[in-house]
Amino acid sequence: MSAPTAEPAEEGSLLLDDQLCFALYAASRAVTARYRPLLDALGLTYPQYLVMLVLWEQDSISVRDLGQALQLESSTLSPLLKRLEASGLLHRERRPEDERSVAIRLTDTGARLQEKARDVPLAIGDSMGLTPEQDALAKQLLRLLTANVTDH
After folding, report:
1. Mean pLDDT, to the nearest integer, of 100-128?
2. How far from 134 is each of 27, 55, 74, 140, CA to CA, in Å?
3. What is the pLDDT of residues 64-75, one digit of tens each?
4. Which range marks the domain in which residue 104 is found?
5. Does residue 142 lie within any of the structural domains?
6. Residue 34: pLDDT above 80?
7. Residues 6 or more apart from 82 whose CB is under 8 A from it?
8. Which pLDDT band, with edges at 50, 70 and 90, does 7 fall under?
9. DSSP 8-state symbol, 107
10. In this structure, what DSSP letter does residue 21 have?
11. H/E stretch holding 100
12. How many domains is the chain partitioned into structurally?
């Protein structure tokens, strides 16, 4: 499939196809739908998968740092962590040096799940059909967009 042409939208256009927000929304829904059967096989939802990705990269992390990494509020993160803990994939513990801080650590079961998840990024990448250069550019542009909107 060839890349779509990038014609600039008329300023102030109210056409649906001219809205970047709709293109982002449609792409997000399509990608999330593609993840669903892959993650169902692992017993994870997409937000839980994101938590696990961070923990597979960094086994012990504070709830605060995890929230920052995922750009999630603690009110959203806490129920996710409770469900993952109930599933036996992680455990939460107060840090002895600071009782206000909670550390999140993988269980052995959570660590073993990483091996089962290895095919997920490959399957998603295949379904996106982007070259490595397009993939890198898409991520770069989306990160820039996120930073710009957050800072605005």
Report:
1. 95
2. 15, 27, 33, 10
3. 999 999 999 988
4. 19-120
5. no
6. yes
7. none
8. confident
9. -
10. H
11. strand 98-106
12. 1
